Amino acid sequence: MVFQLKIKLQKNSFLSFFLAHSPMSLPSRPHLLLLLPVLIMLPPPSHQAQYPPRLIDRIVRDSAFQSYHTKHHKKTAILYKLLLPPSLSGVAAETVRYRAGSLRRHGAAIGEFRVAPGVFVHLHVERLIVVRQNLGNLSSMYNGYGNISGFQLVSPVLGLLFYNATSLHSSSSKNLSELKVSVSRKPITVDFSRAIGDLRRLRPLCAVFKLDGNVSLSNQTASNICVSRQQGHFALVVESSKNTDGIESIDQKVKESKWKVVVVSVAAGAFGAVLLGLIVVAVVSARRKRYEKEEMERRAYEEEVLQISMVGHVRTPAAAVVRTVPALGSN
User: Fold this and answer.
1) DSSP of 189-242, one letter per residue?
2) Is the dihedral of CA 274, 275, 280, 285 positive or negative?
3) Contacts of 5 by beta carbon, 8 Å cutoff, 6+ apart
4) What domain of life is recorded for the organism (predicted)?
5) pLDDT tens across 111-127, in order?
6) Which range has the top average pLDDT, 31-35, 251-255, 281-285, 314-318?
């Protein structure tokens, strides 16, 4: 019976997630056993469940804290990859632990993020855990987020969240919330160059999805680089353009631009070939005219009538002597 139950738990990802993320084990909460038959009978969810953004943050956070308990993640400033539930297979996340004083003095580089020196935590903690997220194909859930409904994502959503490392040894859920951090000097930078291609033609804006649910939009400081003075989630967005069929997708724009490039390239190649042909014809025609002129001069020289005279025993051509006829003037 226990073996059969394990098989059913493996088939139902929602149930396995429920058991993996419950704060206490099932035997310590007997009333949760009553939910097992209901959960087992539930149909398996789709491959990519549509979780709310904050729920994904909690799942990734729990996986980060659990990784420090179950694995030998003892070193600071070392980035560790997280193993997430199958329902979040499209999400990539890493975690790293720092000393608060060291992070404030030296800063850090975490994936696409650059945290400059001068980060202050509004709670006296000795160590903190930083979680980096790349939501991948689950980034679409942010399309209708707050006041970004008139814009469309053109990059995956990247997240950077700070947690209290002392919560690793505490069972209180209050200590698991994000720390309040502030940047006193240079802001945090996010480089999307590795996640996307060249989007300079689209001129995207930087979107910062704050933890309180608000969204702020700003211009890029450089190509594919955004800045922020607080933690949260970040993405590049462009204003949605509408046509007769509704909102035109960015992929369609990119495809149309590629076709335009191909057509312009073919037209330029054809024009270049025609121009090269005209140049070749002009050069050949000029050489032919010069050859014909030289041939005419040669023939005229050869056909000139000359008299033959004897100079000793040698026959040589000689021009006829033309004597000027004297003219008598009248007195």
Assistant:
1) EEE-TTTS---TTT--EEEEE-TTS-EEEE--SBTTEEEESS-EEEEEEEEPPE
2) positive
3) 36, 40
4) Eukaryota
5) 999 999 999 888 788 89
6) 281-285
For the chain, domains (ranges, CATH) are: 1-45 (no CATH), 48-250 (2.60.220)
Residue with tokens 């179950």: 70
Question: Alpha-carbon distance 238 to 217, whole Å?
Answer: 10
Q: Residue 246: pLDDT band by 50, 70, 90 thresholds?
A: very low
Helices 2-11 & 13-20 angle (0-180, nearest 10):
110
Alpha carbon distances (Å) from 313 to 95, 291, 306, 308, 319? 115, 39, 18, 12, 19
Site of tokens 């190649």: 269
